[in-house]
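Design job #97: recover the sequence.
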């Protein structure tokens, strides 16, 4: 079994990390995973959300995968991945603390005249040497590369875990490291190749001849945003310059793989969008930079899972794209394990379970449980398993489960509602309008979950996932009344496991029987 490491570099990398956690919840991640983020913008809203997502995932997994207590079982796809990251150590800022500039990084005022002249040739004195870097590298990869290379070393706690893992390759373990970032922007564009090259150099210095694989996914331009205010134009990224920056970067990456050049990546994936997906607002950085998840980022997530799961091929660069520019469906998403229905079925199953729990079963586990008299599912899966719903701690955990599942519903809805490149584009994945709506008053593209499904929406539950053969709420209810009850499940994990299994695609369930 491989030891897997995923590192998101820059704001886009942090967004992909958050989405990857959601895919791990649905069963599309590896068995074990260490997650990390590199961003100069310490207050970045996407970084903060990813840290929260890690913490919530680990907390719920610890509660429902505990042998002999509330165990849903370790063989289930539900929260399959063991995420080992300490949320407090999940991110690394190359230049932490007070507002730094590139002058501060290299102690410019202490340099001799010749080195000062070199710095002045490489960087514009006002626009680059004195640029405040507390909110990132502002689409200037040359600044980011200098800052990251100067600060990255194995004595830094964030990197120590990774460098220690490299040593384990000499004892026979396979170590797989996957980087994700944008090819445009500042931190990501500069950090992606710099980090990969330094890792590869470290492998050589440690005389590691096999067992370490380095892969990556680069996001080509896939979104745009409004032009910044005039007083910020010199200090921020410009969407219209993304394509030009990407052309130069792609030329650079092509040279990395040509002829006798250094082999930095074992595999490299590219993904983008045409037309660009328009975002409704602009933020230069900080905690207001909370861009919504977008479908092209799912390509990077699935590329990471593919890299973690399979043997590395001799090909070095992958390019993935959809079939029809006017629409998007499950068929346009690549699989992880060569099962063309895998992504649809696992995301669909988790979505169905989340909505069924929220709409039907949560009330009976919290406020209505005392009124249940002869419900077979309740007797078999709750009472017979000695789940004490009068216990405050159990009620607290049930509320946490609901919040976690609601968060997944919000994520998948936000992803779909915000990913249209143009008004009439059809996205046929999850029919999110059945249970949510876009909050038009919110500039971040957030959604609102409906308080209650209508009778029509309840009857249409089995069509929630486009193109899939999933059960109705009635069939799910029947399944819960005739459970299989796996021996290794216990406590509240019995009910959760049976509910999750009952929401599986019908064709997948038939193959498993």
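Job complete. Output follows.
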């Amino acid at each position: 079994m491989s030891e897997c490491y995923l590192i998101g570099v820059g704001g886009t990398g942090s967004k992909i990390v958050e989405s990857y956690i959601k895919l791990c919840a649905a069963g599309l991640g590896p068995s074990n995973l260490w997650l990390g983020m590199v961003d100069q913008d310490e207050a970045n809203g996407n970084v903060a959300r990813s840290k929260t997502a890690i913490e919530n995932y680990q907390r719920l997994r610890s509660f429902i995968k505990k042998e002999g207590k509330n165990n849903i079982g370790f063989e289930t796809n539900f929260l399959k991945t063991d995420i080992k990251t300490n949320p407090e150590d999940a991110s690394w800022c190359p230049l932490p603390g007070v507002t730094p500039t590139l002058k501060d990084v290299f102690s410019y005022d202490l340099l001799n005249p010749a080195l000062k002249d070199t710095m002045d040739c490489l960087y514009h004195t006002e626009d680059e040497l004195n640029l405040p870097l507390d909110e990132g590298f502002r689409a200037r990869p040359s600044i980011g590369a200098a800052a990251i290379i100067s600060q990255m070393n194995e004595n830094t706690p964030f990197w120590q875990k990774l460098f220690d893992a490299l040593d384990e390759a000499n004892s026979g373990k396979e170590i797989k490291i996957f980087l994700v970032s944008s090819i445009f922007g500042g931190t990501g564009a500069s950090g992606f190749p710099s980090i990969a090259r330094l890792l590869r150099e470290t492998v050589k210095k440690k005389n590691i001849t096999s067992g370490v694989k380095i892969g990556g996914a680069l996001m080509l331009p896939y979104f745009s945003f409004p032009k910044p205010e005039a007083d910020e134009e010199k200090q921020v990224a410009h969407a219209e310059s993304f394509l030009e920056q990407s052309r130069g970067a792609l030329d650079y990456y092509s040279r990395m793989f040509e002829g006798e050049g250094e082999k930095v990546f074992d595999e490299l994936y590219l993904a983008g969008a045409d037309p660009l997906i328009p975002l409704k607002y602009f933020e230069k950085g900080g905690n207001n930079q909370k861009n919504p998840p977008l479908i092209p980022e799912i390509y990077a997530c699935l590329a990471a899972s593919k890299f973690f799961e399979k043997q590395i091929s001799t090909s070095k660069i992958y390019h993935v794209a959809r079939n029809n520019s006017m629409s998007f469906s499950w068929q346009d998403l690549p699989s992880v394990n060569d099962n063309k229905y895998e992504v649809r079925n696992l995301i669909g199953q988790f979505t169905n379970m989340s909505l069924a729990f929220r709409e039907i079963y949560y009330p009976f586990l919290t406020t209505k449980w005392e009124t249940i008299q002869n419900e077979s599912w309740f007797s078999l899966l709750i009472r017979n398993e000695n789940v004490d719903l009068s216990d405050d701690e159990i009620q607290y955990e049930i509320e946490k489960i609901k919040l976690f599942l609601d968060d997944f519903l919000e994520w998948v809805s936000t992803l779909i509602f915000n990913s249209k490149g143009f008004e009439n584009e059809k996205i046929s994945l999850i029919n999110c309008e059945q249970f949510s709506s876009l909050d038009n008053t919110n500039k971040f593209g957030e959604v609102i979950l409906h308080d209650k499904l209508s009778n029509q929406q309840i009857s249409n539950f089995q069509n929630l996932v486009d193109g899939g053969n999933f059960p109705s709420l009635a069939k799910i209810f029947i399944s819960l009344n005739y459970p299989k009850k796996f021996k290794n499940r216990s406590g509240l994990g019995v009910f959760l496991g049976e509910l999750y299994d009952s929401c599986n695609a019908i064709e997948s369930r038939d193959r498993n029987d």
